[in-house]
Amino acid sequence: MYFNKFMPGILALFITLFMISCQTDSPLQYPETRMDAVTDNYFGVEVADPYRWLEDDNSEETRAWVQAQNQVTFGYLERIPYRSKINERLTRLWDYERFSTPWREGNYYFYFRNDGTQNQSVLYIREGIDGEPRVFLDPNQMSEDGTISLSSLSVSKDGRYLAYSISRGGSDWNEIFVKEIETGNLLEDHIRWVKFSGISWKGDGFYYSRYDEPRPGEELSGANEFHKVYYHKLGTPQHEDELIYFNPVYPRRNYGVGTTEDERFAILVESQSTSGNAVYVKDLTRPGSRFTQIIEGFNYTNNVIDHLDGKILVRTNHNAPNYRLVLIDPANPRPERWQEIIPEGENVLQSITLAGGKIISRWLEHANSKAYIHDMAGNKEAEIVLPAPGTLGGISGKKEDNTAFFSFTSFTFPSTIYKFDIAANQYESYFAPQVDFNPEDYETRQVFYTSNDGTRIPMFIVHKKGLKLDGTNPTLLYGYGGFNVSLTPSFSVSRLILLENGGVYALANLRGGGEYGRAWHDAGRQLNRQNVFDDFIAAAEYLIEEGYTNPQRLAIQGGSNGGLLVGAAMTQRPELFKVALPAVGVLDMLRYHLFTIGWAWADDYGTSETEEHFRNLLSYSPLHNIEEGVHYPATLVTTADHDDRVVPAHSFKFIAELQRNHRGPNPVLIRVDVDAGHGAGKPLSKTIEEHTDIWAFVFHNMGVKPKYR
């Protein structure tokens, strides 16, 4: 139908694409990938796994294969004539000063700053809100190439010490160090093999979580089991740390201990997946006290905020799919005795902050932020009117401080820091970045389209004002759809490359996310996972039908669980997309749970260990649904050699199978980054290089020649 409606524009586009195809690169010669006769039997079904050998990230053969694949990929990318121009433009765009939201500990305020092109942002400190800032911790000094990054920070309650963790090469493995704040001296304390852990101070030490040291060669792929909580006292070696909690019965559970603001209570959180957790409390003012459970099971997600007069303040979706705020008495924690402070509403209660003697609540309404001020009994007093539709970042403030800070961003609104007077409910700009673009040139719409089963799905669409809906605009559709994660408006420097070249950016809020609470998440997980892919495919069809684009100008992108989304969409509807960009994706759904922390994703996916879930996983697993002779979209798989969250074997096996079966002129390539991980902490230089290659690949395969200012 859209063909007839937009025939003139599309006819001109096809003529352009034909002319470009006459000048295309010579056919690509992909590296030959060895196939072994490996099969698994799942409930009577034989499933071949010929590339099992690529799961060994330490083998010389795998390394040689990666090198050969990169050689083909970068050889292809280097022939794109405007690749260097994209790199220059991205470098200019990213060269602007950036600040994080300041926070106070003791007499000091802390914040991160990047002068524009630093690989890693630098931690600054100032005494008092108006004190002279000084550099306190610069991760750029830790490595020449910026591949060491900060993972977490925690300042002792007395403001004397800063404990921080670092990641090397993007790995989830962390190391903890401690600096004295007044002198800046680095102490001798050094904690290793930390993973999925916070740092929570109690007195002259802190709690942290770790695994046992992995066997040599399994650091980046071995299953993470038997999580343990320790207490480290300053000035002592790690081997003397006190084991606080360890459960030998359940190897696949994670544990973490935090403390309330006044250090009266230690809070132990137990989980076995990415959602749902049990909560235990220990009164640290009572010698000999033990952890007592106040919330049982893993059916609900519970976030402890603090305590009020000895009662624990918790945000929970227990009997409240959109969450509520309750007080729990540790001496009588039965749910029927919980005291409701803020009841469940029509929108999702995202977070709670205690500041200025008030409760500040942050909500999600159709994927946009709302915020309100309540008294300490939970009564709503006022709305915090935000600058525009968009996303409110976390509010930093102390219970006793009237001054707080928060960040705000949207698609064409770079993250801006505001100073907030809580009593007056007024805020002023504290730091506004200066980016080389004019936000007034662009517009954002939120639309609601209909998915395969009639469900209405929200989607944001961003483009230049005055865009012609003639079906020829280069368009990027982005999605995630899982793990209760909500995609909300945010600013992206990289995205400007598309927008300033007349492109369209679309973000779909798919089921499986958290945009509408527990019910929205449940509608896209486990046996309902196909709903997520249907929602994404329906988003693409909407963009085509409404004249934004057509299949020859449509790219899809997603990372991690979003990489699964892209892999499933491109194998289910290959004719619908011109370009596919699965990043660090979960692509082998039959074996994902066997590596590192993969077992924790079973709550969203199910596993191949049960027949019902096996058959469901096999029905959409991207690796297992590639068909011989199909014309697949131009595909650029991206991953990294230090990704120990979603191991790169997923991407390796997927591209090997795709290259073997794909027919047609579209390139199907993999780009393997070196000394990088799942994404967090990636140095800016590598980020710019990666985004340069992605946009060069997208434009080249769409037949678009980008223009430059």
Provide a concise account of the structure shown.
This protein is of the alpha+beta class. 19% of the residues lie in helices and 32% in strands. It is built from 12 helices and 39 strands.
Description:
The protein is of the alpha+beta class. Helices cover 19% and strands 32% of the residues. The protein has twelve helices and 39 strands. The strands form nine sheets. Strands 32-33-35-34-36-37-38-39 form an eight-stranded mixed sheet, with helices on both faces. It starts with a helix and ends in a 7-residue tail after the last helix. The model is unreliable at 1-24 (pLDDT under 50).
Q: Percentage of helical residues?
A: 10-25%
Rg calc? 26 Å
Q: Could you tell me how far the N terminus lies from the C terminus, measured between alpha carbons in angstroms?
A: 37 Å
Portion in strands: 25-35%
Sheet with the most strands: spatial strand order: 32-33-35-34-36-37-38-39
Shape: globular
Individual helix count? 12
Number of strands: 39
Q: Round the mean pLDDT to the nearest integer and report it.
A: 94
Main sheet specs: 8 strands, mixed
Which structural class do you get from the secondary structure elements? alpha+beta
Please mark out the parts with pLDDT under 50 across 5 or more consecutive residues, or reply none: 1-24
